[in-house]
TrEMBL record:
Molecular-function annotations in GO: 2 iron, 2 sulfur cluster binding; metal ion binding; oxidoreductase activity
Name of the molecule in the record: Oxidoreductase
Keywords: 2Fe-2S, Flavoprotein, Iron, Iron-sulfur, Metal-binding, Oxidoreductase
Taxonomic superkingdom: Bacteria
Protein source organism: Azospirillum cavernae
Length: 318
């Protein structure tokens, strides 16, 4: 973790606060690529990941934008209510689990709500490279749109389209029209609420987009009912032979922590990939939104923050 100073913070949309982070002495920061995020220790015991939304060419600042969640688990509330300019935050080096293919013939970018943060960074990078792209940003209303002034002025004017749910029908996002007749060398990137992502990906698939051209990043998992039967199982640590029992209503990460085995976590909802753990044997019950269908089918890793087991024991490569 680096100790960075909050050099600027301001509200940029309803419920959205921007934070600019720099080294205290102004030295360069570790480089990042479009789609990357950083982990921020927002309070004792609370670490959250936030996408970087400034251009990757900048080396002396990181910019994040944080939505104040109505049902905050402590992360967004702490940043909105406690952090001021001049404060210092512990911030991890950038990681990228949502990389941009910079060689695509054309790129379509879709953002829903706060999902604009990694999408804006991608758009900034594509502008720098001179690559063709179009950005479509959907929100409930204009006052909820972060970076609206940036996206409606040059050089984004003519490349970015803003759509609002409270606008007339002709001013709302029509994904079916936009995604019609996909070019063979086009790539699609989408970030936002799970229903928005599902709508874009389902529409793209129906319009003939190939699966390997579709890329998504979730910020939060949708509410899901627990399975009717959810029994206990065991997890074994391959390196030590330690066996932990996971109760019917217990998370794997909590069972491991009770035995002194700490697995890094961030979202705790299976969307960020921070806790992905290799599996040597056993069959996991995947409940995440991070792994692809192919990765799930391989059954060689899982997300212990939310996933469980279909077999009686999982042997973890820890």
């Amino acid at each position: 973790m680096m100790e960075l100073t909050v050099t600027r913070t301001r509200m940029i949309a309803e419920g959205v606060r921007l934070f600019e982070l720099r080294r205290p002495a102004g030295d360069p920061l570790p480089p990042f690529t479009a789609g990357a995020h950083v982990e921020v220790r927002v309070a004792d015991g609370i670490v959250r990941h936030y996408s970087l939304c400034n251009t990757p060419e900048e080396r002396r600042r990181y910019v994040i934008a944080v939505l104040r969640e109505a049902a905050s688990r402590g992360g967004s509330a702490a940043l909105h209510e406690r952090v001021q300019e001049g404060d210092r935050l512990a911030v991890g080096a950038p990681r990228n689990l949502f990389p941009l293919d910079e060689t695509a013939g054309r790129t379509l970018l879709f953002a829903g709500g706060i999902g604009i943060t990694p999408i804006l960074c991608m758009a900034e990078r594509l502008l720098t490279l001179g690559r063709p792209f179009a950005l479509h940003y959907a929100a409930r209303s204009q006052n909820r749109m972060a970076f609206r002034e940036r996206l409606t002025a040059p050089p984004f004017a003519g490349r970015a389209w803003l759509w609002c749910d409270d606008a007339p029908p002709e001013e709302r996002l029509d994904a079916r029209r936009i995604l019609a007749d996909p070019a063979a060398d086009a790539h699609l990137y989408v970030c936002g609420p799970a229903p928005f992502i599902a709508h874009i990906l389902d529409t793209a698939t129906a319009q003939g987009w190939a699966a390997d051209r579709l890329h998504r990043e979730y910020f939060a998992a949708p509410p899901q009912a627990a399975p009717a039967q959810d029994g206990s199982f065991e997890v074994e640590i391959a390196s030590s032979g330690l066996v932990c029992r996971v109760g019917p209503e217990q998370r794997v990460i909590d069972a491991l922590a009770a035995h002194g085995v700490e697995v890094p976590v961030s979202c705790e909802q299976g969307v960020c990939g921070t806790c992905v753990t290799p599996i040597r044997s056993g069959i996991p019950d995947h409940r995440d939104l991070f792994l692809t269908d192919a990765e799930r089918a391989a059954n060689d890793r899982f997300t212990p923050c939310c996933s469980r087991a279909l077999s009686g024991r999982l042997v973890l490569d820890l």
